[in-house]
Amino acid sequence: MANQNEIQNITLVDENGDETLYEILFTFHSDEYSKDYILLVPEGVEDDEEVDIQAYIFNPDENGDATEEDLIQIEDDKEWDMVEEVLNTFLDDDNNFE
Predict the structure, then answer these.
(1) Model confidence over 21-77: pLDDT tens digits?
(2) Residues in Cβ contact with 89 at an 8 Å cutoff, skipping those fewer than 6 apart
(3) What end-to-end distance do the CA atoms of the chain give, in Å?
(4) pTM of the model
(5) Confidence of residue 84 (pLDDT cuts 50, 70, 90)
(6) How far apart are CA 56 and CA 73, in angstroms?
(7) Residues β-bridged to residue 29
(8) Contacts of 21 (CB under 8 A, 6+ apart)
(9) Interior angle at CA 53, CA 65 and CA 11, nearest 5
(10) C-alpha to C-alpha distances, 25 to 17, 70, 83, 93, nearest whole angstrom
């Protein structure tokens, strides 16, 4: 989606109308589910800080971009397990954090 050195952000609005800026951790496509996924972390967190990573199904446009309206909650438990497995593989690879 983006150059590894280029940080992209997205703003999410919660049910109270509060806006939070997130950095896009990475995106990936699942052939098994025929969907694209996006994983987000709160903007400005330190590398060793524990955070809740947000994951969504997303429908990027032809440029690979998406807005909050393009994000869909993941509701299937098996689909969540697959996303967590991909995330854990990403987190275990030190090359992703250079």
Answers:
(1) 999 999 999 999 999 999 999 988 776 778 889 999 988 777 766 666 778 999 999
(2) none
(3) 18
(4) 0.79
(5) very high
(6) 5
(7) 36
(8) 9, 10, 11, 42, 43, 44
(9) 40
(10) 23, 17, 13, 13
